[in-house]
């Protein structure tokens, strides 16, 4: 198990990401790994923090008026678990996440969720810059294919590139098995 006061930070594990509009996704087992880690964290009585994206765009499946805004079954918050709601990529902007962590002496974050190259990456970068020790769980995050300037980029490539950019600079990237000891 990780050291005491390591918080599991679940980022945007929401139903909207099941919508086919997002396209092809890598790591279809991410939610299973997230559920395993969440169960492990709860049994160890370690802090769990849920991040929920609330889009300000009315047509977005992540808008509060849409069912996609809800948490996925694998990541349903339990009573006493903290939820921070955001409308941008970083869980630190427009929320009291940093204050919450510092007031509780939490210096280490274990980050899981969606998507690797957007909200997971942005939150990880900010956490690292704010001085937190950060681990990103590579098999408990996922992303989607991207198109840029007429070229297709597969989700797995985007995922690996995002993790490679984080590892050693902003975080340590590891597998769920490294934590589930």
CATH class: Alpha Beta
CATH homology group: Isochorismatase-like
- Kindly estimate the percentage of residues that lie in beta strands according to DSSP: 15-25%
Low-confidence runs: none
Rg is: 15 Å
The total strand number stands at: 8
CATH topology: Rossmann fold
SSE class: alpha/beta
In one word, what is the shape? globular
- Mean pLDDT reading: 96
**Strands across the major sheet, in which order?**
3-2-1-4-5-8
Overall CATH architecture: 3-Layer(aba) Sandwich
Assembly level: single chain
The helix/strand series, from N terminus to C terminus, equals EHEEHEHEEEHEH
Distance between the ends: 6 Å
What does this protein structure show overall?
The chain is an alpha/beta fold and 181 residues long. The chain has helices at 30-43, 97-103, 116-129, 155-166, 176-179, and strands at 6-11, 48-53, 82-86, 108-114, 133-142, 146-148, 151-153, 172-174. It has one domain (6-179): Rossmann fold (3-Layer(aba) Sandwich), CATH 3.40.50.850. It is built from 5 helices and 8 strands, in the order E-H-E-E-H-E-H-E-E-E-H-E-H. It has a 6-stranded parallel sheet, sandwiched between helices.
Features of this protein?
6-stranded parallel beta sheet; two-stranded antiparallel ribbon; 5 helices; 181 residues; Rossmann fold; alpha/beta; 24% strand
């Amino acid at each position: 198990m990780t050291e005491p006061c390591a918080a599991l930070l679940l980022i945007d594990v929401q139903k909207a990401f099941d919508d086919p509009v997002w396209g092809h996704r890598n790591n279809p087992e991410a939610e299973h790994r997230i559920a395993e880690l969440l169960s492990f964290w709860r049994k160890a009585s370690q802090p769990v923090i849920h991040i929920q994206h609330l889009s300000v765009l009315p047509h977005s499946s992540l808008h509060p008026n849409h069912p996609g805004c809800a948490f996925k079954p694998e990541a349903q918050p339990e009573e006493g678990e903290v939820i921070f709601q955001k409308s941008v990529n970083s869980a630190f902007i427009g929320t009291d996440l940093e204050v919450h962590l510092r007031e509780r002496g939490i210096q280490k974050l274990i980050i899981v969720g969606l998507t690797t190259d957007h909200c997971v990456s942005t939150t990880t970068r900010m956490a690292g810059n704010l001085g937190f020790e950060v681990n990103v769980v590579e098999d408990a995050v996922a992303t989607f294919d991207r198109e840029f300037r007429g070229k297709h980029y597969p989700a797995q490539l985007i995922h690996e590139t995002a993790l490679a950019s984080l590892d050693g600079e902003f975080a340590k990237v590891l597998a769920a098995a490294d934590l589930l000891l």
